Amino acid sequence: MDEYTPAQVAEATGFSLDTLRYYEKEGLIGPVERTVGGRRRYRSSDLAWLDLIKCLRDTGMPIADLKRYSRLSEDDSTLAERFALLEAHDRVVQAEIDRLRERQHRLHEKMAWYREQLGG
Amino acid sequence: MDEYTPAQVAEATGFSLDTLRYYEKEGLIGPVERTVGGRRRYRSSDLAWLDLIKCLRDTGMPIADLKRYSRLSEDDSTLAERFALLEAHDRVVQAEIDRLRERQHRLHEKMAWYREQLGG
DNA sequence: CTGCAAGCTGGAGTGCGCTCCAGCTCAAGC
DNA sequence: GCTTGAGCTGGAGCGCACTCCAGCTTGCAG
User: Fold this and answer.
1) How confident is the model at residue A91 (pLDDT cuts 50, 70, 90)?
2) How far apart are CA A3 and CA B112, in angstroms?
3) pLDDT score at B1
4) What is the rounded distance in angstroms from the CA atom of residue B27 to the CA atom of residue A112?
5) What pLDDT, in 10s, does the model give residues A42-65?
6) Alpha helices in chain A, H assignment, sequence order
7) Three-state secondary-structure class, residue B108
8) Taking the CB of residue A2, how many other CB atoms lie within 10 A of it?
9) B98 interfaces chain A, CB cutoff of 8 Å
10) Which B positions 66-95 lie with beta carbon below 8 A of chain A?
């Protein structure tokens, strides 16, 4: 019924319970609904948002930027700004991929040298 | 003449002076030669080694692994082990690249959504 | 009704990889 | 000889992103 316990969300998103609470405290996710007893009850919209957060975190976006993106998302008039933020992040990610591939090339050269020493 | 001051090495490798000293203290680089007055004098072999360290660090190899690789490099009979270490690292790097590309794909989808919202 | 797992809060602690600092020595130029 | 800047050491501090903990409350299972 579109309701999830913290444990289920942790399972689904890969974030730990502590991390979920930390993100909420930091404002990366808006205040999550609570049951009468005070327990968190997440909705599928929260899951979708957390999936995006995960994507951005996994690609190295710092918490501070995520916080900014999150604040912007509360205001409908900030679409362009949010888009610009993602665009900038995309460039960072692309640069990181390029850098890794370049370094990997060096690494392969070194490995070729070892192969030569070992068997060739 | 194959001798470099710390400042020159920092310039050449992109490591800070503090980082160079830290790496030496941690054993990532063997004790660097000293002048009579006690100042470090690096050789081009040190530069080559530091370049490799840089490549490995930039691709995310932790200091502890680098330490191990460095210790192994002192013993000629460990070629195979060192090769295995690099091979394992290469797999990690490849996985990281793949993961980044996958996430970037999601990011592009999100950006496409924004473009649609913004201008049609 | 009881037991026990799950969840709550605020705050302290952790791991990594540096980075900074004080107080000193050394060396090259004038 | 003096100044100035580069370098030295040991150790403290930092930023980030969690992670752990104590002490408590909640709520389902039997």
Assistant:
1) very high
2) 29
3) 65
4) 26
5) 999 999 999 999 999 999 999 999
6) 6-13, 17-26, 44-58, 63-72, 79-118
7) helix
8) 10
9) no
10) 79-80, 82-83, 86-87, 89-90, 93-94
